[in-house]
Amino acid sequence: MDRLIEGGFNGVVSVLRVLAETGRMGPVDRLGFTLDRHVAIEALTEAMRVFHALANGARLVRIEAGGGARVYRCCELYRVETGEPCRGVRGRALEGEYAGSEVCCVPCPEAPRDEEVRGVVECIEGSSCWRDFTRALVARALARP
């Protein structure tokens, strides 16, 4: 738990955050609310599987936002209308099928290292307060960065 409080497991937190931002809450909810540590580990495994599927389909898109343009690796990309909410980067696509359109890009983080994922599993398996740990992990993911 101390490692989480000190900012550890940032890669796993980023994965859970992307799943939440793209509406894939199933594994996130199960991880945060399960009463069985084995289900928590299965939920973490599913979260990683879903994330890897998203990351493998990510698109590189040049977006103009905040006065500058840069290329984003988007786990999810879609057109947005004025006033429509966006849980990622909002801007004007400069190329590709959305060129000239207002888009929302949910940026894809780097996948966490295997050691980090193993560390989370070890905390779930070996801690008497594993429920507090998984709830804190999910709370960090759902909090605004």
Structure description:
- The relative contact order is 0.23.
- Strands 1-2-4-3 form a four-stranded antiparallel barrel.
- The chain is elongated.
- The mean pLDDT is 92.
- The chain has helices at residues 2-5, 10-21, 26-33, 37-56, 114-126, 130-142; strands spanning 59-65, 68-79, 89-93, 102-107.
- A hairpin with a 2-residue loop joins strand 1 (59-65) and strand 2.
- It folds into two domains: 2-55 and 111-142, Four Helix Bundle (Hemerythrin (Met), subunit A); 59-107, no CATH class.
- Helix 2 (10-21) crosses helix 6 and helix 3 (26-33) runs antiparallel to helix 6 (130-142).
- Helix content is 48%, strand content 21%.
- With 145 residues, the protein is of the alpha+beta class.
Looking at this protein, list some descriptive labels:
single chain; 145 residues; alpha+beta; Four Helix Bundle (Hemerythrin (Met), subunit A); 2 domains; four-stranded antiparallel barrel; 6 helices; 4 strands; 48% helix; elongated
Quaternary structure state of the chains depicted: single chain
CATH architecture of the largest domain: Up-down Bundle
The portion of residues forming beta strands comes to 15-25%
Low-confidence stretches: none
Radius of gyration: 17 Å
> How is the CATH topology of the largest domain named?
Four Helix Bundle (Hemerythrin (Met), subunit A)
Q: For the terminal residues, how far apart are their CA atoms?
A: 20 Å
Total beta-strand segments:
4
Shape: elongated
Sheet bearing the most strands, described?
Answer: 4 strands, antiparallel, barrel
What class, by secondary structure content?
Answer: alpha+beta
H/E element order: HHHHEEEEHH
Q: Strand arrangement, largest sheet? A: 1-2-4-3
User: What value does the average pLDDT take?
Assistant: 92
Helix count, DSSP H or I runs of 4 or more residues? 6
CATH class category of the largest domain: Mainly Alpha
Number of domains as seen in the coordinates: 2
